[in-house]
Amino acid sequence: MDIMQLMRDRYSCRGFTDEHVGEAELASILEAGRIAPSACNNQPWRFIVLQGAEGLAKVDGCTKCRYGAPVAVLVCFDKDASAKNPAVTPDYGWIDCGLAIMQMALEAKALGLDSCIVGAYDPSAARVALNIPENLVTYQFLMLGYAEKGPVRMHFDRRSMEEVVIHGGF
Ligand SMILES: Cc1cc2nc3c(=O)[nH]c(=O)nc-3n(C[C@H](O)[C@H](O)[C@H](O)COP(=O)(O)O)c2cc1C
């Protein structure tokens, strides 16, 4: 699929069917995250994959925003990897994870799945439920599955080019 079309078609899905996500599709989505660019090539991300009744119950314990998705990936970063030398290079863990999650969302769309990035979760509850070690910072969930609901109005609500592009400085 044309990359521009893919980016236009991706939307935050807030209603999934319970259709199973195949292993090959999930592997390909995770691969898209794995190969994302990162500052100093630190690759600080770690992807905690949650599915099945037990895994999804843990997700539901820390967010109301699973939207019925059969798979949830909690993207985290290892601060020992993202901030190796803070005096020289800032900790880009948040940005690196943002790039990885976006690549995963786009690969999901390319495979016919939909996704929703979810920041509305309780990080403390996630840490306890998933036994996340202290060196990992939790970033966002990526909910994955097959769409039952299409995009909401916000998807179409974008600032104009005139507002976001500044040619030649202010
Ligand atoms: C960092 C981040 C956090 C988000 N957290 C949530 C969330 O907790 N719940 C939710 O329903 N959508 C969440 N979204 C989705 C945004 O609301 C959505 O991207 C925005 O409204 C544009 O709509 P679209 O993704 O359909 O184009 C999040 C998106 C980003 C990038």
Describe this structure in words.
Helices cover 38% and strands 18% of the residues. It is α+β, with helices and mostly antiparallel strands and 170 residues long. The chain has a single domain (12-149), classed as NADH Oxidase (3-Layer(aba) Sandwich). The chain starts with a helix and ends in a 6-residue tail after the last helix. Flavin mononucleotide is lined by residues 11-12, 14, 65, 116-120, 140, 151, 154-155.
What is this structure's SSE topology?
Elements: H1 3-9, H2 23-34, E1 45-51, H3 52-60, E2 71-78, H4 79-82, H5 93-110, E3 114-118, H6 123-129, E4 136-145, H7 153-156, H8 161-164
Antiparallel strand pairs: 1-2, 2-4, 3-4
The structure holds flavin mononucleotide.
Give the CATH architecture. Answer: 3-Layer(aba) Sandwich
Could you list the spans in which at least 5 consecutive residues all have pLDDT below 50? none
- Heterogens: flavin mononucleotide
CATH topology, by name, is NADH Oxidase
Q: How many structural domains does the protein architecture include? A: 1
Can you give the helix content as a percent range?
A: 25-40%
Order of helices and strands: HHEHEHHEHEHH
CATH superfamily: NADH Oxidase
Shape: globular
Distance between the termini: 37 Å
What Rg is obtained from the alpha carbons, in whole angstroms? 17 Å
For the report, how would you describe the main beta sheet?
4 strands, antiparallel
Summarize model confidence as the mean pLDDT: 97
The proportion of residues in beta strands is 15-25%
Spatial strand order of the main sheet: 1-2-4-3
